[in-house]
Amino acid sequence: MSRKRKEISEFDTELQEYKDKYYQELRNDKHKIWYSDKILKCPYCPDSREYSHSDLLRHADRIVRESKSATFKEKAKHLGLIKYLERHLSEKIKCVESTKTTTPKQNIKRHLSDKIKCVESTKITIPEQNINEELFVWPWMALVANIPVEYKNGKYIGESGNKLKEEWIKQGYNPVKVHPLWSWRGHSGLAVVEFGKTWDGFDYAMTFVKAFELNKHGRKDFYDMYRGKDDKLYAWLARDEDYNSTGLVGDYLRKNGDLKTVAAIEKEDQVKTTKLIMGLKTQIDEKAKIGEKIKSRISRADSKMEIVMKQKEVMIDNFNKGMELMQEKTTKQLEKIFIEHEQSKRRLEDREKKLRAREAVNDIERRKLDSEKKMNQLAIMEQKKADERMLKLAEDQKREKEKLHDQIIELQKELDDKQRLELQINQMKGALEVMKHMTDEDVEAKKKKDLIQEDLKDKEEELEDLEALRQALIVKERKTNDELVDARKELISGLMENSARSHISVKRMGELDGKPFIAAAKRNGSSKKETIKLASLWENHLRDPNWYPFKVITVDGKLEEIIDEEDEKITSLKAECDNDVYNAVVTALTELNKYNPSGRYPIPELWNTKEKKRATLKEGVEFILKQWRTHKLRKRGPVASPSFGVSVVSFLGLMENSARSHISVKRMGVLDEKPFIAAAKRNGSSKKEMIKLVSLWENHLRDPNWHPFKVITVDGKVEVMSLW
Q1: How far is the C-alpha of 327 from the C-alpha of 318, rounded, in Å?
Q2: Domain, as residue range, for 77
Q3: Are 109 and 250 found together in one domain?
Q4: Which burial class, exposed, middle or buried, applies to 625 when counting CB atoms under 10 A from its CB (0-12, 13-18, 19+)?
Q5: Is the separation of the CB atoms in 631 and 637 below 8 Å?
Q6: Which pLDDT score is estimated for 492?
Q7: How many structural domains compose the chain?
Q8: Model pTM?
């Protein structure tokens, strides 16, 4: 068996299984079909109209055979419905006991046989003709005659086609279109009723015509010359004799229809069904081929995926090995650095101990030297006192000598020698006391002390000079900072009315944004008054200096302040309001804590809207310069705002002014090349040498290590002057 036949058999088997399944559901009364004794509805069509038993069979058969939009399961459901109608409902309807199958062809034969019986009952004989060979106008059409007309304004007028169509729809015939036939005299009293091309349309057309024939208002009755006509309508199905007739009827039928037999129409339907089945089979084959291709692609993709996964595993292994090696190297390096750090720490601690010990020794030596100085002073004082006592004693002895000169003249020499010897002994004792404290080590210490004092004096003088230079630089820095602050304030005041959509604008840091409150109010359906009240409440909370909902945490060894989410007000805000309102309050609170924590009120600040950060003075100047140049090129264009124009002119108006003017802009620190050019002309140097010399001195000027200045005091003020 070929694959194509196998797929068809599998398709039929699956269809039969679903058909039996839905048939059993109908037998078990899971779906409702009967709505009255004569009215049935399709349980699988949601907007199903009311059917008779035969109409419901034709409906289900049409879904199975003709519907192109019905799915596989929908066709299986209607096959189960056909099986259920044929087997179980025939007993309930006596009029269809003899009906075993209800195909479209048999419906046609039944309607034609009913028509023949109806004609025979009216005692009108018609020639026998094969039903399948009888010619009908297709699409199915019926002719209606004897429509009431009225002569008015020179023409005949009658009822419109839409009105007739609505009446017949109410009667259940469902015509597609009603077309009255008009001539040059007006309404002809004839109309063509179209029922479409479907078998349901044929059924409606036959029912429509049969109703008129039963009332003896058919074609034969209309053309019966011996019968008087009443004012009722006559109707019959359009056939070949109507199609080939002359006049309005024949012209309309030839223009809008064709003559076909039932067999031909049935054959066309079979051809269409066959083409549809063949097309579906072709699509199935194509889908199968596509499925095979997809399967082959999937298999190739799976093989490639396996290769890629293996490569990925190898790469991951290599990466892990590399990471392990790197981690080992990093660990070893960290251990080495830690050991070196510990060694350096120990060396520093030892050095600190030595310095502290040396400091203690120096204190002891200084105290010892002070005590020795005091001892020397005491020794000198004792020597002076001894000298004074000796002089006084000598005077006393001299006076005694004068008084007792006669008595001791013999012992005078011995007494003088003794006095001289005692004086020498006392002098030697005093000198000995002085020399006792003046050793060689003390002299060296004194020399060291003198040298240290001289060095200390030099260092103190140098320190005084550096302190004076530092004070001068601090004064200069303060002046520069004041100028930068004034320039930033001028920028802020000039850009105050600038649009917030600009690259650089002024933002009030700490100001509460009201847009999230308005958006939240719209979402929650709150009133404008409640929104303003809520925003004002949080404005007051932000201005309260006693409310400080921040906590300090450590991140990477640094202290940072973050919002304390456990704060009572923050918790209530997060629970009661939307995230947009919460973020707006947190943003304003963070900005206040960063830019004005003491005042707790909004302050204007230059803001970079593109990078969402505080703009530098350089960015503000570049922005104003760009705006000023753009405004200069568009002299006739509109100015952004008066204050912005004044700010630009006041801040940058001198940037391109001539240097010959009274007030201009000078680039401080730029080397003037004119003296070099004049010197080169005087000395006959080349231009290349002159440029080389200028570049050399520009490099010297850019060198931060070259500082050819000294600090002097002029009139009590510290000034910095060059060394030349």
Answers
A1: 14
A2: 3-96
A3: yes
A4: middle
A5: yes
A6: 78
A7: 5
A8: 0.30
